[in-house]
Please model this.
Amino acid sequence: MSAALALARGRLSLVTALPFVLLAVLVVLDVSLQPALLSRDQIGIEVATAMSLVLVGLGQTVVILTRGIDLSVGGMMSLTNCLLATRVGSGTGSLLLWCAIILLVGIAGGAVNGLLIGLTRLQPFVVTLATWSIFNGVALWILPSPGGHVPNALISLPLGDWAGIPRMLWILAAVCVLWSLLRRTRTGVQVYAFGSDPDAAFLSGVSTLGVTLRVYAFSGLCAALAGIFVATQTASGSPTVGAPFILNAVAAVVIGGTSLFGGRGGFAGTVAGAFVLTLIAEVTFGLGINSNWGVFAQGLLLILAVAVNTGSELVQRRREERR
Amino acid sequence: MSVLRITDLRKRYGAVHALDGASLEARSGEVHALLGENGAGKSTLIKILSGAVRHDGGSIALDDRELRIRSPRDAVRAGIGTAFQELSLIPDLTVAQNLFFGREPLGRLRGVRRGRLEQEAAALLEQLGIERIAATALVRTLPIAQRQLVEIAKAAARRPRVLILDEATSALSPAEGTWLLELARRTAREGAIVIFISHRLAEIRDVADRMTVFRAGVDVGAGAIDQIDDDEAVRLMLGRRVERLYPPRREAVGEEVVLAARGLTLGTRLAGVDLDLRRGEILGVGGLQGQGQRELFNALAGATPARGRIELEGREIHPTSPRRALAEGIALVPEDRQREGLLLDLSIRDNIALPVIERISRAGFVDARAETRMVAEVAERLQITAGSWAREAGSLSGGNQQKVVLAKTLVSGARVLLLYDATRGVDVGTKSEIFTLLRELAGSGMATLFYSTDLQELTNVCDRVAVMADGRIGGILAGPQLTEENVLRLSVGGSLPPVAAEAVR
Amino acid sequence: MTDRRQWLRRNQATLLAYAMAIALFLVTSAFAHGFATWNHTRVLLVQACFIGIVGLGQTFVILGGGVDLSVPWMLNATATLLTLWCHGQAANLVWVLPVLLAMAVIVGLVNGLGVTLLGVSPIIMTLGVNGVLQGALLLITNGGQSPTAPHAIQQLATGNVAGIPIALLVWAAVALIAWLLLSKMSLGRQLYATGTNARVAYLSGVRVGRVTVLSYVISALASALAGVLLAGYVGEAYLGMGDVYLFSSVAAVVIGGASILGGRGHYVGTVAGALILTLLAALLPILNLNPAALQVVYGFAILLTVGLASLRLGGT
Model:
């Protein structure tokens, strides 16, 4: 949808189109390798596989839009995942209560990042590197080795369908709608403004602390959601479950075309990026080759995407300077 | 009727008193001009009024009610709208989003109503008479003059009680300038206070009712516009000139061309510059700001290579990086010494030795004794007063900092010196020392290219002055022709008076 | 102001770090019996040398204004490939070590060129390279167990010469090299200049790109050396053995008084940082704390020192 809009405004660039082209190629490749993937249930499963990354990616998108980075999402995912696997009792009431607590933990952890970055002007990477370590440590403390218990009600959440459409598609749609609502608020505009030009945004009345606090708290919330959701996939808790998501969340955002210089991009690209990364792993499976090629390709794709991303930005800047 | 009363405002940046007890009084219904040289404290005052920085002392009152401005938001709430010289527009938002930033019309679920926003913006642009700018255009895509118009519209759109226009005409065409003056007058007529900052006296005569003149962080004069004539205004801005600021010029300059440029081209900024710099000469570069002077200096110094031919002592050279230029003996004193000239956190010694650190190393090891000797030599020659060369460069005064930058070029053994606005923010005493040094260096054969925004400096320091316009050398002035008036004439694209042209032949 | 006061001002963070290391050592030995013996101190020092050596590379990169997040899998890769290719045979070291060395240089070059030529932010570039290394290593090992390290390497990491652990001697040697590079050689001056303000350095004729790339190469080499030593120390390699060095290397550098913004600090400080982190790790079991607390401690150590540094700089 975002691609269509961009096209309509006549500023479709390589960077905006790239994730969707990549995604289309991978879908075609994957389906031709494994035609069974096109069934309704399989589509639901595919979306469920990518969902955790989509969620962390949502938070990371917003952070990167403000020229920041949140490395602590991996630690926060592990932490919330361990909380879920160790604290939730058998009843639905307990599940709901703990989910609420976990989401609050995510917001609070993210708010700490935001406060430290906004108040002290420390670089985001060093603050979130430190809190990543802290969240990781707490996760290990709560659950030293993989295990714990995930209630069945949660595990069955992604399965089945509503009104003939896989439940996961509904959930994905809900997240996208949530984004489009948020982005239209004044805060949404401020986030873009702050990323586009922090000085001009400040002069226009944007509070640096206010934006930073909200953005990182939101990222923490998204990581906590992902920590809960990933339990539906693994059916247990793990103190290291979040580790791969740090790289992949950044990769999803960058492949999705959000500018590392802030202010440009959005969630639609990130969703595409997350599916691209998920499908790469699928394709290696379909090709019957070592699945570790997937991990390798994911890292490589990040570097390539970031090179394209940065390169196109530099070219555009040079062009504007010449004007 | 409301009154803006600024009393005894103070602001310090480190050791520099940007505002040292400045006062200003402006009434509603008037356009109030604020005048002063670069560094007089005008922009600091604007920054304080608009909430960008906080003041250290003094008070700001509107209608006898003290204003507490701690952020740009406070300023807007207090009814102060500012069109910033450096623009406060968000490049990745549309014109409409920028015009109504922070007060967008909201619909259900607190979402911004885009259609309504664009309608209102279009209406506003039309009402202001600049409807040729599309409300839906991204600011990033607009040319600089149109951005300036949007910035003005953004400040005016809130109908502020105090409207500040900071050098707002600088990027505008004459027609757009007229539009702005009309806007300022109308806004004042409607009961607002308009603070108008400009360098162009004619413009101020045209629009302002009263004026206040700043010098060195203090208000040195104020009154109705017809009470202060141009000479008086200039006299107030400049104060009493320090005598003997400029060393005597040498009588004869050698004929040998050290550095020659032919057809230097860079995008639209440099449109074929030809230049001859002779041995022992100080060649000034003048013109309005942004006519390609920066690009010319950067091209010669290797910082932004341009197309064309550069010859050093008759031999073609290719300064593709500052490193190469330095190796050829071409050294640049860059525009912004804090950001481009000095490593503020490192010692004076480290700074001075940096350009030659490889030359004074053997097998990668720095020869500490040679380094000390070298640093001591130039530091003494330049009379850098620091107490210790281990002191951080950032802790020095502006004048001494600039001397350290000059010392860097001297140790590198430069034969060609490129000084880009090297005297900005430097105290008068140090300025005089720098000029004497430049003359001394010229006496020993140094070829110097000297850019300054200060006409008086250009005409008093330089042997010849090349005036740039539109990326070209518009003309070269020397001898009796070299007057402030003539530099200004060439700058604005005029021609020289026939008598002066005669005198040269 | 005298030179000596200048020196004190510039190095106050480093001096503080050493004071803290000594204080920690004294306090801990007061509580724990047998802590302050030479035998135990020796063990502690050897443990500190791994952080110390990885931190050496990190120091160079951070001084130059970057950061190297590819440390964990660089270390993993070296340790794993060493054991895998040697098959326990010391004779194989003749070709394995040079290959590993070359690999480290290549990884450093990729990091550095990505940052300088492509203009990618160091965080993302090195994070990506970390991912690629992880993928490549998983491909090679297929996630399986690798054989034990050759005896010679184990000897290198655990042996003693005249009562002094060989690993410590290795650390001392590389520390000396680092000190020479930073304090005595033109490269050090250019690195500080680049980290303080790359634009000024460039305009002053410093080959900023080359200096930056070199810092990443040094970092990769340091991680590789740590990987070799760690494989010998543990006796084998396992995936994930490098994970903790990401945090601890950055922590050691900032605790040692370096500015995370670049241009300020010294390896001498990082050594103190490595000692402090090792002492804190040794303190946890004495305080009956869960080993998981170590990561929490690392995190707080980074936050605290970086926060204090920013307050100190902001105050002046």
Notes: The domain at 2-322 of chain A is CATH 1.10.3470 (ABC transporter involved in vitamin B12 uptake, BtuC).
